[in-house]
Amino acid sequence: MSAPELRTAPVAGGELTYGEWRADATGTPVLAIHGITSSHLAWPFVVDLLDGVRVVAPDLRGRAGSNALPGPFGLRVHADDMAAVLDAAGIERAVVVGHSMGAFVAVRFAELYPERVESLVLVDGGLPIPPPAGMTPEEAAAATLGPALERLSMTFESVQAYRDFWLKHPGIGPYWCDEIETYVDYDLVGEAPELRASANPEAIAENALQLDGADEYATALMALATPITFVRAPRGLFDQPEALYSPETVDAWRDQLHDARFLEADDVNHYTIIMGASGARQVAPVIADRLDEARTKEIA
């Protein structure tokens, strides 16, 4: 698979790292925003299927190549960072794709910078996730993210030890491949025998509490005039049958977002919907449809 060029964008507090594929491509580009503890290397499977399309994908503030950037780490700050990435790349307007928490960033970006967003593709994220009855938001975040949060407090004696940690993850391990190994290796910082995951725990803790629709997020989502496509993964973060979004939750939002498109991916989990060949074959055409619509609008 093609490797991105690593670049930086000036943002509040320093430089934010982003990856760029096909910088010389013409036409509407794609801004691809990763999930809560992820990086730009979540996207190569999808990027490879977007033939001839320019793609820029950040490492969000507090993660991977941008992990030294200071807080605050709220969704609006991430949205400002996305504008800075587009500025640095010389991009006026893009189809914006967000996975998991990245979809929430995409929604805030469309709210605050509507002129920069051609359309939104929300991949198993972006719809508010209220905490289950009887759970505090903190408890709900811990229950949902599980090992993704646990590993932030761990150290690893070697690169292989970190790979072994992920190989045991039911949502990742059974689908291991060279691309996932590269993604995992990129996430390590420090020196052996005290290697650790790159994500800043403060950033993850702050963002984990911002996915429930509070702080007028749900209102902002419903007020968007931007075209929206939502794609649901039928299995959860641990490859379990209970997905991040129940069909009932999606149906409720279908009633609220009348003009949005709601699609169901087949036989993927929350990770493999973009980090696997099968998921990418389903998500990439959704993005391509939105790019085709942008092209048609330009011609008209």
Automatic annotation (TrEMBL):
One of its GO terms (cellular component) is membrane. Pfam families: Abhydrolase_1. InterPro entries: AB_hydrolase_1, AB_hydrolase_fold, AB_hydrolase_sf. Residues 29-136 form the AB hydrolase-1 domain. GO terms for molecular function: catalytic activity. This is AB hydrolase-1 domain-containing protein. It comes from Agromyces rhizosphaerae.
